[in-house]
Structure formats: C-alpha cells, structure tokens
Write a structure and sequence with these properties.
Length: 356
C-alpha cells in the first residue's frame, strides 16, 4: 500500500463544520470534496467539456455511489476554539472582525448568547494531520496532486474564496512532493509558478492525456484559462495583508457599475440607480447561484504573507443565458490592473479576450 502523512497548519482562521452545523470540525469528507474539485481543475485542462470522460476519471480515483474510492483519507481533527464577536474582545484576540466585508457571512452564522455573538473555529497556527492511503500508485499520486493544489491554491471552509481557511504544509512526508517536483515552501513567486506547471503536466501524464483544451464550461487550471497571481501588500501580518486587500476590493466594487459586480459571484442584490439596463433580470440575479471565479488566500513566500489570487475564465459564466450575456469578464482584468499583482501562472489577457 502507498501511504503518506502530512502536518497542515492554518495560516488564516478555518471556519469548517460537519453534519452538526453548531460545531467546528475538520472532516475527511470535506477535504476529500475539495480535493475532487481540484482534481476537476487539474484534469479539466485535458478533458475540457468531455464531462463523461472527466466523471469516469474522477470516479476511478475518488469513487461514486456505485464505486468505492481507491483513496483513503483520514484526518485528526484538532479541538476548536470559541470565537467571540463582542466588541473589544475579537480584535485583541484574532483581528477577525476587522474583515467585516470579506468575512461578513461568518458573523451571520454565529450564535447569540448573553448578548455576545460567538462560534467555534480554528485559529491561525492550528495544526492537524492528514493521511492518504491507496493500493494503486497512480491513484495515490493523483490524490497527492489534488491535496497539494487544495492547500497551495485553495481555501478550506466558509469564505475559503475570500481569505479564510488558508493552509500551509508544516511537516510530515514532504519529500514525496519534492520527488514529484512540487514545492511545499516557496522561496520566490517563480517557484510557485513552476510547481503549478509541473502539477498540471504530471496530471496529464497520470491520466494518459497529452493535449490541452482551449476552454471548458467549468474552472480548469490551464495557462490558457486561468491566472494565478501574487500581491505584496507590504504588510508582515496576515490580517494586515487581508485588510489591505479588502480595502482595495471594496473600493473597486464601489467604482464599477452595478451590473459589472455580477462577475464576482451570485447571488447579488442590486437596487436603486444604475440597474436600469438589467431591471428585467434583477429577480433572476437575486435567486441565481454562481461561485466567484476569483479565489483569494494567503501564501507565504520566504515567510512573508502574500495574497494569492486565482482567477478562472470559463466558456460560460452562468447556464442562464440572460445572466451570461450581461456578465463582463473584462471587469476582472480591470481589477488586476488596480492592484498590480505579479502573475506567476497563466495570463491576465484571458479576461480581455472575446470568445465565441
């Protein structure tokens, strides 16, 4: 059997729950679900809109209702802490309440007790271990790739696309990643870009695919369809870096037209002036669901916190044509220019191009 164990550390707070939504819990099924998402992003570079082929490849590794998973994932969940939202307490303890715009929904999920809001969470520097096991070498390596992408590029739990739940590899069998050509600690932005290229190339090799596709209807980690960038906020503190990004993000949203804000995700409530051109679609926008094509997290380069910004271009923004035709991808290109990020993989230009 092929097996490995890794120690992961929270860079930013983790707000993750299990079946009991009142308790914080880092669960193997939740992590496996995120790994499956990144499997599709990696494999999608080769399968494109061959959804049947992609689904078969995913089920072969991670299983389905009719097939057992070939990869076993176990997690040692640590003990969570109680996060208070009482004014004057939370700022001193964690600084979470400073991010009222990026993490607004976390506060909405909190419970009220004796006039003080709280919920359970995992603070920065929390460590836990994850074990991967498989009888197949190919499946094991694919699982390693997806875990690597989940940790390095993604975010875990609530507001994982807006800076919460950023993790880092802190120990364990890290030489396994090094043997695959994947870095787990980064000395430069170029180091990150090279590791992503290696991960995408290795995914194709393991899937017996050698031709990349132009664009799919779902997010794919191809240089032709995504942009991975780093932003140096100038801050040495994780919360300071996120706060500075929050300010830039909020100002940008306020300075673009209301219809242009749609590209950052749905649902969205729009009203008042500036919506006359889409007033017949406001109700559809309010009820529609579409995850933001932009993911934001924190990644340390030489121990300094950088904002990692991962954006995906897809062939359609939404399956509803009335919504799809008003989504403006160029807004993401304008946002890129507003913060002067460093592109390490892919290109900003994909958000300015017009595709048939």
């Amino acid at each position: 059997m092929y097996k490995a164990e890794f120690k992961l550390e929270a860079v930013t707070p983790i707000f993750m729950r299990g079946a009991d939504q009142t308790k914080a819990e880092i669960r193997a099924p939740s992590i496996k679900g995120l790994m499956r998402w990144w499997f599709r992003a990696l494999a999608g570079s080769y399968f494109g809109d061959d959804i049947t082929g992609l689904r078969k490849a995913e089920e072969f590794v991670f299983g389905s209702t009719g097939r057992r998973s070939r990869v076993i994932i176990e997690v040692d969940s640590p003990k969570p802490r109680k996060l208070h939202f009482k004014p004057g307490i939370i700022d001193r303890l964690t600084g979470v309440s400073k991010l009222r715009y990026l993490w607004f929904s976390i506060m909405l999920l909190s419970k009220e007790k004796s006039g003080c809001q709280f919920q359970y969470y995992y603070p920065p520097n929390t460590e836990f271990s994850i074990q991967l096991r498989s009888f197949g070498e190919r499946e094991f390596k694919i699982a390693l790739l997806t875990l690597w992408a989940s940790v390095v590029l993604g975010g875990f739990g609530f507001r994982g696309r807006r800076g919460a739940g950023s993790l880092a590899f802190a120990g364990g069998d890290l030489e396994i990643f090094e043997n695959l050509g994947l870095s787990t600690s980064f000395k430069s932005p170029e180091d990150l870009g090279n590791s992503i290229r290696r991960a995408v190339k290795l995914a194709g090799k393991l899937l017996n695919k050698n031709t990349t596709v132009r664009m799919a209807s779902y997010p794919t980690l191809s240089e032709k369809t995504c942009c991975v960038a780093l932003w140096d906020s100038g801050e040495r503190d994780v919360f300071g870096a996120l706060k500075k990004f929050e300010g830039n993000y909020l100002r940008f949203r306020k300075n673009v037209s209301k219809p242009e804000r749609i590209i950052f995700g749905l649902p969205i409530k729009l009203g008042g002036r500036g919506v006359e051109s889409i007033k017949d679609r406001l109700n559809e926008l309010k009820n529609a669901r579409r995850a933001s094509p932009m993911m934001v997290g924190v990644l340390k380069i030489n121990e300094k916190p950088f904002l990692k910004i991962v954006k995906f271009r897809t062939s359609k923004f939404h399956y509803n044509n009335k919504i799809d035709e008003i989504a403006n991808w160029k807004t993401l290109a304008r946002f890129d220019k507003s913060i002067r990020e460093i592109v390490v993989y892919g290109s900003k230009s994909i958000f300015e191009e017009v595709f048939p």
